[in-house]
Write a structure and sequence with these properties.
By secondary structure, the protein is mainly alpha-helical. Helix content is 72%, strand content 0%.
């Protein structure tokens, strides 16, 4: 895992969110925090697209909750510089079944 590179997120599935959580837990420098924030930005964008294309209210609600968790993780690492807390927030979303 090279923390000095930005992971190109292509989805927001369980595996991707787990990888992001692991990268957050391993991040220690301000530069790493900026990279993790960027990775979360991309996941956030992918979820926004999925929300707009959701087939039904149940799917839209699940995606909206997932997006809220990603936004919270984004702010925890990007604003508060608390990558472990951000990783925990993503893990909670995964355990809640919000990610596919």
């Amino acid at each position: 895992m090279d923390l000095d590179d930005i992971l190109e997120a292509e989805s927001f599935d369980r595996a991707t969110l787990t990888t992001l959580a692991e990268r957050l837990r391993a991040s220690k420098t301000l530069e790493h925090f900026v990279y993790r924030e960027s990775e979360l930005d991309e996941v956030w964008r992918l979820i926004d697209v999925a929300v707009a294309r959701a087939d039904n209210a149940t799917q839209r609600a699940r995606l909206t909750q997932l997006r809220a968790a990603v936004v919270e993780a984004h702010d925890l690492v990007g604003v508060d510089h608390r990558p472990a807390a951000a990783a925990n927030r993503l893990s909670e979303a995964i355990l809640a079944g919000l990610a596919d």
